[in-house]
Amino acid sequence: MPGRFSRTELIFGREAIENLSKCRVAVFGIGGVGGYATEALVRSGIGAIDIVDDDKVCITNINRQIFATTSTVGMYKVDAAEKRLLDINPSLTVYKHRCFFTPETSKEFDFSQYDYVIDAIDTVTGKIEIIMRAREAGVPVISAMGAGNKTDPGKLRVTDIYKTTVCPLARVMRHELRRRGVDKLKVVYSEEEPVRSDDAEVSCRGHCVCPPGTQRNCLSRRAIPGSTAFVPPAAGLMIASEVVRDLIAKKAREKTTVQ
User: Which domain covers residue 31, as residue numbers?
Assistant: First the structure.
């Protein structure tokens, strides 16, 4: 009988959909990139998802974040996300983590529970910690590089971190990962040169409108990038595609090995 995932089943088959329903994916950062990755995973039939974010929805998120609407402004992002995701699939298991992921808070997470990890946060120390913890646990991880200040989703690429160019964040990550002996990492990044804007009238730097109680408001951030409604979401959907196809391929290999 047709159901929520029957159209996906027509492509990947029933067994693949059943396998996805048994998988648990952790998404660190559910903003412009991570939010779309999260929803695409749930719409693909992932059975359990961890969403990790400490931010509240801000009105300036509405232009690009799928969980940001007028009605969710002021809500914690993980709360807004949980409500929407369970409306998509009531059978989904949602693990909410309302925290800012750092090396200090990483102790709260058991990476061995995950089938896949998505790094969609914007701090280098946090990204490195996610990658190293996933590596120690033997769990595949995909990392989002910079999606801000970009206008062309056609310049997005999926590749290894050591094949990236242009992206300043990727350059820093290459250096830090090489120091730690990490020889590969799947990433989504943009080959587009960043667009810069110095319009002080609309910058959050001088006009922060974050909801009261926001842990990291605009004044605490290193930079306030411009962003569009199409580049971060496209990056998030590319990430979800990689995760779904990797998980399906992994389960197929495991079945072959057992046989």
Answer: 6-258
